[in-house]
């Protein structure tokens, strides 16, 4: 597949990138170079190769999932304009 100048202009418009007319040939060449790299990747045999999440095998650190309040109630309520009995106090909005 080859990208011509009109296709490069269309891609630039879709990407909302202003490209001058005299820069379109260079942009089309860059697109063609990128497509060439993709074609090279398609030639690689990946049959039986499992996907990797990292270059080195590693196991994620795990911790027990325990619900707690974080012991930061005083810090959290420090900047509250009105706090009562360990909670934010807000004006009543429903009568």
UniProtKB/TrEMBL annotation:
SUPFAM superfamilies: Glu-tRNAGln amidotransferase C subunit (SSF141000). InterPro entries: Asp/Glu-ADT_sf_sub_c (IPR036113), GatC (IPR003837). The keyword Nucleotide-binding applies. Its EC number is 6.3.5.-. Transmembrane segments: none annotated. GO terms for molecular function: asparaginyl-tRNA synthase (glutamine-hydrolyzing) activity; ATP binding; glutaminyl-tRNA synthase (glutamine-hydrolyzing) activity; transferase activity. It catalyses: L-aspartyl-tRNA(Asn) + L-glutamine + ATP + H2O = L-asparaginyl-tRNA(Asn) + L-glutamate + ADP + phosphate + 2 H(+); L-glutamyl-tRNA(Gln) + L-glutamine + ATP + H2O = L-glutaminyl-tRNA(Gln) + L-glutamate + ADP + phosphate + H(+). One of its GO terms (biological process) is translation. It is an enzyme of class 6 (ligase). NCBIfam families: gatC. Heterotrimer of A, B and C subunits. Allows the formation of correctly charged Asn-tRNA(Asn) or Gln-tRNA(Gln) through the transamidation of misacylated Asp-tRNA(Asn) or Glu-tRNA(Gln) in organisms which lack either or both of asparaginyl-tRNA or glutaminyl-tRNA synthetases. The reaction takes place in the presence of glutamine and ATP through an activated phospho-Asp-tRNA(Asn) or phospho-Glu-tRNA(Gln). This is Aspartyl/glutamyl-tRNA(Asn/Gln) amidotransferase subunit C. It comes from Phaeobacter gallaeciensis.
């Amino acid at each position: 597949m080859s990208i011509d100048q009109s296709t490069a202009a269309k891609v630039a418009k879709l990407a909302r990138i202003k490209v001058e007319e005299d820069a379109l040939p260079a942009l089309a060449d860059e697109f063609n170079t990128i497509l060439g790299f993709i074609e090279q990747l398609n030639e690689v045999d990946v049959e039986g190769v499992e996907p990797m999440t990292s270059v080195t095998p590693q196991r994620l650190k795990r911790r027990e999932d325990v619900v707690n309040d974080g012991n930061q109630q005083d810090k959290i309520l420090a900047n509250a304009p009105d706090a009562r009995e360990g909670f934010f106090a807000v004006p009543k909005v429903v009568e």
